[in-house]
Amino acid sequence: MIADDEAHVRRYIGAILSQMNSEIAYEARDGKEAVEMFGRVRPGLLLLDINMPVKSGKAALQEIMHNYPKAFVIMLTSLADRETIEECISLGASGYIRKDISIDEFKQSIMQSWRAYREIHLEPESK
Fold it and tell me: 3-state class of 47 per DSSP?
């Protein structure tokens, strides 16, 4: 699931995920819609923009993590300062991605966040 107020960003990220053999099944245009939709569909991954109308990504993250503490959420940002990003991580985000990075870096960031999430929230593989 992706939550971003800009349609072209949602399409761009959808194309990147398609290259990773994944897809955006759900889209939200603001933080309020993201919280409501997350509760209904419980996606495996939420890419959540920090700066959105109606409810900020940070406020949406806080509400989602309160209700679903094992949610896998990666924050998206183009202008957020380091303090905001660190606060999102402390609220439970598994990572963040700057929107202005290359496609390869975007993919790598998703995979790094997934590895970190898996170490914390999923049981270790049996040996």
Answer: strand
Decide if 98 is inside a domain: yes
Residue 127 inside a domain? The answer is no
- Domain total of the chain: 1
Q: What is the 3-state secondary structure of 11-31?
A: HHHHHHHHHCCCCCCCEECCH
Region class of 91: left (phi > 0), else alpha (psi between -120 and 50), else beta: alpha
Q: What is the CATH number of the domain that holds 107?
A: 3.40.50.2300
126 sits in which H/E element: none
pTM: 0.88
In a domain, 6, yes or no: yes
- The string of pLDDT tens digits covering residues 34-79 is 999 999 999 989 999 999 999 999 999 999 999 999 999 999 988 7
What's the farthest any 2 CA atoms get from each other in the chain?
47
DSSP at 70: T
